[in-house]
Amino acid sequence: MNWYVLFVQTLYEDKLCAFLNRSEGIHAFSAKLEYYRRDRKTNELKSLFPGYVFVKTEFDQLEFNEWLRKQEVKKGFIKQLLYDHVSALQKEEIQILTVLLNEYHVLPMSYGHLENNKIVIDHGTLKGLESYIVKYDKRNRLASLDLFFLNQRWIAGVSLERKE
To answer: CA-to-CA distance for 80 and 82, rounded, in angstroms?
Structure first.
């Protein structure tokens, strides 16, 4: 599978994904982040990388460019991210995406506790990746990870329990 990245208006991420997914051989998605919403006291989803749509297809770069050019309705589409006719995603970035996102393209909430002022993840996607956590916002239950992707630092939902 080849991966491509489209830069889109954030309002149209999900609509553009739905439109692209109607085509044969195209799987488009907008990566989501599960996070705790304090005002509603529940977990919700929001865009992990606002303004980016990921496309998986068997098309090579030239075929994909031609297919994309022929699409009539592209409301919200700005441009394709690529470097000299090569996909903007590197193999390592694709691997990170496939490891951290579940089958619904969501980075699920992780749960853990503090031990000697260090975060220990008990269960969730970040289990075993605690060394990548560089900052934790306990008010919003969000962890900043030392992983950069599309010139942005990854954030992940992490809920910590007090263990005495």
So the answer is: 6
Helix (H, G, I), strand (E, B) or coil at 149: strand
Query: Tokens 């999900």 map to which residue?
Result: 14
Where b means 16+ CB within 10 Å and e means fewer, 58-93 reads ebeeeebeebbeeeeeeebbeebeeeeeebbbeeeb
pTM of this prediction? 0.86
Condensed to tens digits (0 to 9), the pLDDT of residues 20-47 reads: 999 999 999 999 999 999 899 899 999 9
Contacts of residue 91, defined as CB under 8 A and 6 or more positions apart, other chains included, come to none
Find the length of the chain.
164
Q: Which two tokens stand for residue 138?
A: 């306990």
